[in-house]
Design brief:
The structure is a homodimer. By secondary structure, the first copy, chain A, is α/β, with parallel strands linked by helices. Chain A is built from 15 helices and 19 strands. The longest helix of chain A is centred in the N-terminal third of the chain and has 25 residues. The N and C termini of chain A lie far apart (about 50 Å). Chains A, B: It comes from Micromonospora krabiensis.
Amino acid sequence: MSTLRPALLTDHYELTMVSAALRDGTADRRCVFEVFSRRLPSGRRYGVVAGTARLIELIRNFRFDEAEVDFLLRRGVVDEPAAAWLRDYRFTGDIDGYAEGELFFPNSPVLTVSGTFAECVVLETLVLSVLNHDSAVAAAAARMVTAARGRTLIEMGSRRAHEGAAVAAARAAYLAGFGFTSNLEAGRRYGIPTAGTAAHAFTLLHDDERTAFASQVATLGKDTTLLVDTYDISQGIRNAIAVAGTDLRAVRIDSGDLAVIAQQSRELLDSLGATETKIIVSGDLDEYAIAALAAEPVDMYGAGTAVVTGSGAPTVGLVYKLVEVDGRPVVKRSEHKATIGGRKIAVRRHKPTGTATEEIIVPQGVPDRQPNDRLLQRSYVVGGEAAELPTLEESREHLRQCLISIPWEGLKLSAGDPAIPVTVVPAA
Amino acid sequence: MSTLRPALLTDHYELTMVSAALRDGTADRRCVFEVFSRRLPSGRRYGVVAGTARLIELIRNFRFDEAEVDFLLRRGVVDEPAAAWLRDYRFTGDIDGYAEGELFFPNSPVLTVSGTFAECVVLETLVLSVLNHDSAVAAAAARMVTAARGRTLIEMGSRRAHEGAAVAAARAAYLAGFGFTSNLEAGRRYGIPTAGTAAHAFTLLHDDERTAFASQVATLGKDTTLLVDTYDISQGIRNAIAVAGTDLRAVRIDSGDLAVIAQQSRELLDSLGATETKIIVSGDLDEYAIAALAAEPVDMYGAGTAVVTGSGAPTVGLVYKLVEVDGRPVVKRSEHKATIGGRKIAVRRHKPTGTATEEIIVPQGVPDRQPNDRLLQRSYVVGGEAAELPTLEESREHLRQCLISIPWEGLKLSAGDPAIPVTVVPAA
């Protein structure tokens, strides 16, 4: 599977800065860049770090080939010395950061990239593109998983996202606890279980609904899901059971007042003896719609648009800021966008019961550790060499544990403060 | 430049439907699928078709290689007959649709894909991914262009979008009238002018602001933009002019109350003799923020998050529905999601002055043409062969003309009805 070459997924100014810094001798100053968000998206109580493994893989392939350098020279983006530097580029610095699947809050130092100014600055756009997108999807997906209260979720939003973003979105949703995706490339690239059976088009293609159902069952067996709302839902359910028998695995309903229809469908299925046949609902479901169906006889939810677009927050506002030069903290001082200088170490503090109480961030120092503190940063890249990455399943389990650890108010869907406070503590 | 192989950017159910349809003999029925939206995103008065040329190129490369087919067999998505069919797949049907850059409204038949059921159904996800994403960005960008009233816009939102989506977003923003993008890959792939100079990190890297400015001017010349808000904006402007002289091209301000700061900055620049130095503002600008700066001395806007995320509407709700089988119109009848059967022809009706008054859609027939009607569909693919596509510049000009043609109320940023009504007229 070919993927995008990452080197030009970069903003113009990163390379003009490299040109200027090479010329004035500052390109090799040791720098620390930090990824953090100033605030969570409106109403959210936590963020979810996602995309880190994808990012580290892209950085590993971050090289400028001759055609790319030629383009940059022709356009006047870089001069010859910068072009020569780009031809030899590979990242030789260090990257530390939160685990994929970790929660984050305002000012959490989600990722720390250190090395020379030039080698770090060119990664800005790629780092932010990956983390902002994947974290937005993962956070929305995590809220849906909470709202689903243990019922299975299927991600089916590929059609509502850019075709490449769709694959990453499927991964982020799975990380957050979704059980399946409809996206085949996500199945292949990341090993995520894929699911799907038929669209309304399949029913319309056939002379009548029963013929369509019979064809589907003949090919896919009774362990399939029949889409029963192309014409009349009650008749669709009767047709489904007439064709497949009472051991049909599931019916799917994609339209109408899902609460009412789920109840009526359950009653009808039961009356037909199909007491084990599951009900899958879909159609513009977000975390609130899912929560509203909690009391209804629904077995599985299909979510599309809302999950792949971050359910109102399609980006999480992560920024990539220079915080240290040659060991000195640096800060931008303009209003509203002030930063906290210096490399930071972060721990999450917990009660002995395991409930998180606070995140402690120490710039240019080490936190005074308490017994139930957990260090939040791990090493991803050392001297340009990537460490072994957690598997997607491990990151998924990590997020599941993190969500168990925050105070219950933190899981509420309503707007509220961050689930735990973040305290920036000056080093001792 | 390698791009994603498109064949698996597809939903699981499309291939299970192919399996079943091949087995029951319906796979070769002649079908017409139509792309349309049931409604515009909340508050919007028009949609903008974007991504069509990108899509046609992806469809041209839509083939299943051996590794992809193996994956599908191993996962049980397809059976052997379907696998054999996929190995030979290439689209041999027809694709008609609105021009890229055309406006659309609820029920506009934006794209029509015809061929056998199986060859058309597998394109559903890819078609919708591309058009939903690119059209969302283009519509937001077009509103910003209107709000900017002739001032130049720079797209700088790559960091707030998936890394692949960012490239397509830059293209869609340029289509809509933006003048530049920060995204280098968009510059290379689509020939879009790129722009950018320096981030706050560049100033922070240096020992002081003047040194940073001097370095930038030494490398990029005076025809550059100095970012003056790292510390104190007034002092930043004084430093900029002290270093570059009064023929500095531009200063950029990325924070604070931009209306007030633009005025103060203009006065200060003028008082320093830099009357020709431009002011570029950026920082969470959307169409409303841009409109609010109309009276201020701003020369150029940088827009990021809002444009790449569709400014509140990250997808435009285009769907891909089967409307005709073997010449018969077909319709889904379930509530709220009814479709209009049959292949449709669309024209836009205009006053003699050129102002659009109505869109006329005729299912299974040809509109009764009036003198100022414009046929909205063109042919993209005939018998699997793609026609020559308009250039991006041509599509950009097409949109510009379309926006001139709609009634002025249609350009208002406030919520309202679609700019022109869409009338579905039964064939004579």
